[in-house]
Specification:
single chain, 294 residues, mainly alpha, 12 helices, 0% strand, globular
Length: 294
């Protein structure tokens, strides 16, 4: 399947749409966080996401397959997602969405390290150099010790770590389990985890109609993001769509500027460029390696 084939172009289009809808979900979350505490917001978003997922599964005829998702690695993936989201919401509440998303983009780099240390994959020198460049970019974005970025942005590193562990665990989930079923189980676990932490650490407030609408929209956009991403990898080869994963950063910076008036400083822009270059470089290497193997 060539990169310019209609199927690949559809896949790229779906991934771009998925990135945009995920960033809209984050933007709605950030707007609701002005009025409500973080974990209450996650619970509300979770309820909306569960409703959307159940409706979509019913339409697709896969609702009866929900019980097939009760597998150990599905639950392990869900637990890791809980820790990732609980830290992500703290970063999103207090730091610019562009900075948070940029740091989160090191997740694929952490997955590569996981594959090297856990699965004993070959550590190619150039790939390791690109990974180091990506981490250097994340440090530029976070700017620890300079006081120019919110210290809460460090929670984005925690999110990236748990997200990478989640993706590594996801490799062991049976392909017989529909992606949306695994997603629904994860959404339920995140909502329960947020409720458990929130009820202990937060004073929950009565949400306004604005917050309810924002969370209804966030749940919908979250589900659309999962669906578009799933369709991207179904319609196109992984090598074709992987470089466009970094469109998340572009969408987030645009949303940060248009919606919240956030303008990344010079160091953050340099860092984002390094992360982007690192990710695209690794995607190109993987594509060349796949062609050589074939």
């Amino acid at each position: 399947m060539s990169s310019g084939s209609p199927s690949n172009l559809r896949g790229i289009g779906f991934l771009l749409a998925g990135a945009g809808t995920f960033v809209l979900n984050d933007s709605f979350l950030k707007m609701a966080l002005v009025e409500l505490p973080p974990y209450e917001v996650l619970v509300m978003r979770g309820i909306s996401g569960i409703i959307c997922a159940v409706v979509l599964l019913a339409v697709m005829g896969d609702l009866r397959k929900f019980t097939t998702g009760s597998k150990p690695f599905v639950f392990l993936r869900g637990i890791l997602e809980v820790f990732a989201i609980l830290s992500y919401i703290l970063a999103l509440a207090h730091a610019p969405i562009g900075d948070v998303t940029a740091i989160f983009q090191i997740t694929p780099l952490l997955v590569i390290l996981g594959m090297i240390f856990i699965h004993r994959e070959q550590a190619l020198p150039l790939r390791m150099v690109l990974v180091v460049i990506g981490f250097a970019g994340a440090i530029f974005v976070a700017q620890p010790g300079f006081g120019t970025a919110s210290p809460y942005v460090m929670f984005a590193f925690v999110t990236a770590l748990f997200a990478a562990l989640r993706d590594l665990a996801g490799r062991y989930v049976s392909p017989e389990i529909p992606a949306l079923v695994a997603t629904l189980i994860t959404i339920i676990m995140v909502a329960l985890g947020a409720a458990a932490v929130g009820l202990v650490t937060e004073q929950w407030l009565m949400p306004s109609s604005r917050s309810i609408l924002l969370m209804a929209g966030a749940g919908l956009f979250m589900m659309l993001g999962h669906m578009f991403t799933f369709l991207a990898y179904r319609n196109a080869s992984a090598q074709a769509v992987a470089p466009f994963y970094y469109s998340f950063m572009v969408w987030a910076v645009a949303a940060g500027y248009v919606i919240f008036g956030d303008i990344p400083n010079l160091y953050a822009m340099i860092g984002m460029s390094l992360i982007l270059a690192s990710g695209l470089g690794i995607a190109f290497m993987e594509r060349q390696h796949s062609r050589t193997a074939n």
